[in-house]
Amino acid sequence: MAVDPVCGMEVDPAKAKYKTLYRGKVYYFCSSMCKEEFERRPEYYLQHGPQGMPHR
Amino acid sequence: MDIRVGVKVEGRETVLKILGMHCATCSLTVQRALLSVRGVRWAEASLASNEARLVASPELDYGELLKAVRRVGYDVYREAVYISVPGARPEDAAAVERAARLWGVFRASFSPATSLLYVEYNPLEVGPRDVAEALARAGFKAGEVSRSEVDVDVDRKAAERDARDLASRLLPAVPITAVLMASMMFPAVPPLAQLLMASAVQFYSGWRFLSGAYRAFRNGTANMDTLVALGTLSTFTYSAYAALTGGRAFFEASAAVITFVLAGRYMESRMKLKTGDAVRRLAQMAPPRARVKTGEGFTEVDSAQVEPGQLVEVREGERIPVDGYVEEGMGYADESAFTGEPMPAEKKPGDLALAGTLLVRGRLLVRATRSGAHTYLAEVVRLVRQAQNARLPIQRLADRVAGVFTWAVMAAAAATFAAWALRGAPPGQALLFAASVLVVACPCALGLATPLAVVVGVGRAAEKGLLVKNPEAFEKALRARFAVFDKTGTLTKGSPRVVKYVGDVEALAYAASAESQSTHPLARALVDYASELGLAVQPPESYDSFPGMGVYATVGGRSVGVGNERLMEALGAEVPQGMRELAEGLRSEGLSAVYVAVDGKVRGLAALGDKLRPDAASAVQRLRSMGLEPVVASGDNERAVAAVAAKLGISRYFGGAEPERKAEIVRRLREEGGVIFVGDGVNDAPALAAADVGIAVSNGTEVAKEAGDVVVARGDLSKVAEFLQISRRVEANARFNLIWAFAYNIALIPIAAGLFYPALSLRPELAGLAMSLSSITVTLNALRLKRA
Fold it and tell me: E strands along A1-56, which residues?
């Protein structure tokens, strides 16, 4: 199991629909919202850890 | 069930099974979507049970729930049935649908052309039996209920029963009417005998009009039956009174009207049966029996009973009974029913064989994968049937008019009677004029106008290998200004080859291994190329694909990336200047270039080329001559797309477009005019959905899963133009029917009212004949589409 770096939820890499590649590592997300949020500021989430569901 | 939830929410509760929810955000999205529906007071979607519960006011439009959930990208589990409603008239369509729209019914659509009601419902709330009961309450007798939509005989059986009933009632009416008409000139039959004979026609032969009128009355509506019943009953009653008091009777009028209208309905029901021919022919292509290998020999079993994995023998001249792959043998199969392609396709071991196709030469052993209701053929039939039950948007006007039409006609008849009586005409004659007005009006031609065109048009399209899933596409296609094509696999052959590789062989082997899990055409080309060079391709330990970038995998413990600059950048791999320039050069020749990175270092560059389809240029040209502007949108890089566009003389193109971007391009173009998108049914789903008309070119056999309004077999771009052509014919046909139906009523009602008397007038019996002819005309006209 992988962990969504934005909301902290567990995501199954085999089934994940949303993922991105950043600095040679694959990150999986529970939703397009988390993915877009991560792509907006990846460094923030990698340093601070999951922050919960993004609000928009 | 009325319940109270929490403190203040009152209303009716319902539970929906939601499909596609896989995370917490999803359930929130679904919940919000449900709450946005008018009438919903409280909603909650649970990820754990995949269910949504909600409380709503009883006036809630249940169908809106489904639309709301689908709009945000999820779906609701539902079941569907076809219920035949033999007694309903075309102008009753709205009443039937209203009656069927119970709590729990998402969609109810009645096709006057087939007399079938299609119901999509929530099995947690209602069942077909509830719908049938609701129909009965509204006075419509529900006939057969068919769950397996493959059973195309439901409508045929219903229509045949109807025809038999009509014939048995018509049989005594004909000679009696003949005698009555003769006695009009030679008064040989005494008036009382005439009364007896006319009664038989009025109450036995004409029974369906009386019961139909009563049913409509109870529903607070009026239909064709109301008009016929009123027209004939009034003349009959007057004549009976006259016969008993020694006045001038005209029994022949009521009897003849009933005879003519019955005869018209008989012909109509016979002809309507023909409109469904195409789909019936399709459904009957699957042979009922199959020879399955058991031990040493073969045993004959029911085709639907064949299990996946069993071997089925097919001999020359037989139709293939199941879907499967050829295990042994060689032959040629005629697949024209699915593709419209007249040349038989070669079948050798490993090839896909489809149920219903004809083995014209050879003998095959087919390893079954799907049988019965799961075959491609069954799926096609199901989709075509569903599409045939739809109405075109232009029909809405006709339906609105038909709704008030009968009332207007009755008012006109009353006015006619009053006007003639005031002018001093004898009551008998005033009544004849009024009766003529009642029976000449034909709301049913209005109700039938587009449904018939859709049934025949969808069927005809299916015969040409065009699977129309949404008949509204016929209308929308004609308003389109742009035809947007996907490039790879649509305009090009979709089977690219590696034309050049720069780099070390080890990196190539890694690249091929990384790509071995992908179904993307470029990936397959790379794997084929490596295999040809004799390199060992191994399955990767992990694999991920990134649309618009490339793939990233772990092979033998090393991280391997194959893709464009964006992928390299995300991997943090530096592309050497020389290699970048080389790639640019290759792309300007219309080739695709991908880099290979191993452990963060770029070690190779592969150039791949794809050939244009031979018919691409002519297909694009043909669309242009039909007034459409061709556009290319592709995920490939800008330069490769530009090269293809230039070869086809297309000036508007978009490269580097991922699936979502393509949808965005479509949306932007739609601001300028209607858009037809032609592309892959799976990868281009967002763009297909965003377009006015989505045409999916499919190479798979999972038609139902593909997006798009129309599905065509891959490899035949001319089908797009063919679809436009059929659209024009269907639209013209429906329009002709509507105009004819309107004009006919507008022209004949004044004549029937005696406005031009005595120069031009219509006796009731002639009016009845004219009315029958009008619905027959509409039906005949729609049947012309069979040759479109």
Answer: 2-3, 10-11, 18-22, 25-29
Amino acid code (one letter) for B260: F
Q: Where are the domains of chain B?
A: 2-76, 289-373, 467-489+613-721, 497-609
Does the annotation mark B636 as catalytic? no
CATH 3.40.50.410 fits B497-609, yes or no: no
In CATH terms, are B289-373 and B497-609 the same topology? no
Residue of A nearest to B561 (CA): A24
- What pLDDT, in 10s, does the model give residues B559-583? 999 998 888 988 888 899 999 999 9
CATH tag for B467-489+613-721 (out of 3.10.330.10, 3.90.550.10, 3.30.300.20, 3.40.50.1000): 3.40.50.1000
Subunit contact A53:B25, Cβ cutoff 8 A: yes
- Using one digit for the tens of pLDDT, what is the confidence trace for B20-44? 666 566 677 788 889 989 889 888 8
ipTM above 0.85, yes or no: no
Task: Out of B323, B486, B680, B709, pick the active-site residue.
Answer: B486
What is the mean pLDDT of the segment spanning B367-372?
87
Residues of B with CB under 8 A from a CB of A: 22-26, 542, 544, 546, 549, 552, 559, 567, 570-573, 600
- Which residue of B25, B541, B569, B571 to mutate against A (max A Cβ within 10 Å)? B25
User: Buried b / exposed e across B562-571, counting CB within 10 Å, b at 16+?
Assistant: bbbbebbebb
Q: Which CATH architecture has domain B289-373?
A: Distorted Sandwich (2.70)
Residue B731: helix, strand or coil by DSSP?
helix
Q: Which residues pair with B712 in a beta bridge?
A: B466, B697
Q: Which residue has the tokens 């909301």?
A: A7
Residues of A within an 8 Å Cβ radius of B: 7, 9, 13, 15, 19-24, 26, 30-31, 33-34, 53
CATH number for the segment(s) B2-76? 3.30.70.100
Per-residue model confidence as pLDDT tens digits over B372-420: 888 888 888 888 877 877 777 777 777 777 778 888 999 999 999 999 9
Q: Which of A18, A21, A29 to mutate to test the interface with B (most CBs of B within 10 A)?
A: A21
When the pLDDT of each residue in chain B is averaged and rounded to a whole number, the result is 85
Measured CA distances, B598 to B301, B527, B539, B568, B755 (Å): 55, 17, 16, 10, 92
Determine the pLDDT at residue B705.
63
